[in-house]
Amino acid sequence: MELELLWDMFLGIKLVFLLLIILEFAGFTVYDHPIGAAVKQSSYFTNKPFDGIFGLAFSNISSISEKSLLDVLKENGLIQRKRFALYLTRYGDRASELLFDDVNPERFEGKFTTVNLTSDSGFWIIRLDGAQISLDGKTTVIYFSQNQAVMDTGSTMIYAPKKAAYALHKHIPGAKKKWFRNYYTFPCNIMANITLKFIIGGMKVIILPENLSLGSEDGGKTCISAISSTNDDEWILGSSFLRNVYTVWDAEAKKISFASLRK
Length: 263
Known about the structure:
The protein is mainly beta.
């Protein structure tokens, strides 16, 4: 699958052997849990403030052919249901929160919107119905022919198929695609005037202005769009999307639920 190859190239990690460890986190203790030991990694990880990848996808895509952590927690009676809830913030803001087999009502408000996974591939894949862009009183709704989206806590950006990325950015005044690159830029001074909503299961997830950009490339005049172009057919909804909504990931029901963040 092209997505897997892209992920492998991005990570630049070579796994050559397994370790069995005692894994302790958040009050859980798992004995003899296998992890893949990396002996080679890309320069991307050199200055990153983490030591590894905490995978929460399904067991059938494990690169080391081992059970997922959710499966292990359930089999050991540490959780009753294979699900987790995610509250994700920006660097420097309040702490993010990963909650197993429960939800935190202090993090969300209103009712949940629940959608089914659309694939048994092992990734968390859902249908993305469309997007709504509002600027200067004008609202445009865009529907996508390529509407399968991988929900991915390990990606920073929102990756859109080429046609979809172009369709979104053409409604942002001054937006430009960098030649021979897959990212877009736009004038920073219009960011506060843009309202972007992704439509999933009838729910409109508002992308906050601060999550539309990855930062400036020239001291605050030109912003790098958090939505990048990809050659894949699937979207990847990374943390630039996930910071805007409370999510519950249910591996048993094969569903993901969304709720608005508590203000």
